[in-house]
Amino acid sequence: MAPKRTTEIDGNGYNSHDVPLNSQDRPTSPLVSVPRGPPELDLSRFQDESIITRDVCIIGGGSAGTYAAIRLRQMNHSVVLVEKEDHLGGHVNTYDDPETETAVDYGVLYYENLPVVRDYFDHFDIELEKISILEQNSTQHRVDLRTGAPVGPAEGNMLLALAAYTAQLLKYPYLNTGFNLPYPVPPDLLLPFGDFVKKYNLEGAVDIIAMFNQGAGDILKQTTLYMLKYFGLDVVQSALGGFLIPASHNNSELYGAAREELGEDVLLNSIVTYTYRNEEREYAYAVVETPSGAKVIRARKLIIAIPPRLDLLKGMDLDELERGLFGQFNNTCYYTALARIPGFPEDIQIVNRATDTVYQLPPQPAVYVINTTRAPRLFTILYGSKDHMTEAEVKGNMARSVMQLRNTGLQVEPPEFVQYADHSPFLLTVPPDAIRNGFYRHLNDLQGHRKTYYMSATLNTQASAQIWSFIDGLLHTSF
């Protein structure tokens, strides 16, 4: 969440994400051809030292995969965690500013104030502190970043609208963890969120929901189910009462501690090229390319902790059921950057709003906010789009938006980008008809299918705290 949340508030967004099993490319389309099966597995070509046997193999070392690895070891299961990057953390992005020796988070920023968060950090003796993001010291300026025109305050009474919104959330307690939907699915959950807002007079809450649901695309057109999941009860309570952050103000501290604890059970800079999951075999197998050569992981259970999109699962021996479900996903796209912006004041926040749209929400693709950070002269820029964009396109649009601030009287210069992260695919969704016809019931039934379990944000929500709660429940019942 933000404000790739961990709620994670990412800078906004909530979180876990890793990437493809065998590709460095970012996804561009859900309609990707996936091989029907890997080549035959020939263990004779691997030396004994290249065969790793564990109880569980976890693919993806973001928020979900790292948490699952730590919890499984606490439960006395042996694990191996495969991560394509050179570090753990997924949507957690931290820059160590050499000028000030300050750690600056520009991905996940905040965590919901929940026992699962406190317990996880306590495990590593990492101190937490509470922060209220609604009472930050910076002055908010609402600007149409297409033109630089000032935009007035949000309309309506936010607190009254939030109370009405909370009353709606309380009608659906099963949304707190996972997608355990009743049948038939309540019609209100399948409405476009803009229609849901009008039906229940929630207009005064739209602005704050938009602030927290960054990365979710056009929220008024999104299906209400996803918006209620994204901005759920725990988020509302933490928004009003305060989120948690590490006292060090460095979210990567958590993942550094996890990396140290897991030791040789983590394979960094490694990519799964094939999996072999035969119900008649005692083990599932994964062939992994690592910096020290190809290895075979032999595990009793496999956890997929990356978004289950077809283009991210190349190399997996998917069956027709898995392929049919995963092929239905659409997604939004989300990007974060850290930049020096000469002439930008240190004590303001720029919120992008529009002068000519409903609820003043800016048409996407668009910058969400420009925020100050703990390091002088460093600013985060958060950006969203429906379709995937290249790094050059995103940075170009970010720069043009920044330069519109000259029309407000700020004598800014073009941003000098220091860091950039593409958190796409972000929010994975399916159409209302698929939800109505039992999509999530079938998706949940995949847990344990062919020795495989799915534990990414897609099975719950982008908030890390919610991901961890979901994983705790699944580990308790299935491991």
From TrEMBL:
One Pfam short name? NAD_binding_8
Q: Name one GO molecular function term.
A: oxidoreductase activity
Name the residue ranges with Polar residues bias: 21-31
Positions of the region Disordered? 1-39
Q: Which InterPro entries does UniProt cross-reference here? A: FAD/NAD-bd_sf, Zeta_carotene_desat/Oxidored
Protein name, entry field: Amine oxidase domain-containing protein
* Annotated organism of origin: Aspergillus sergii
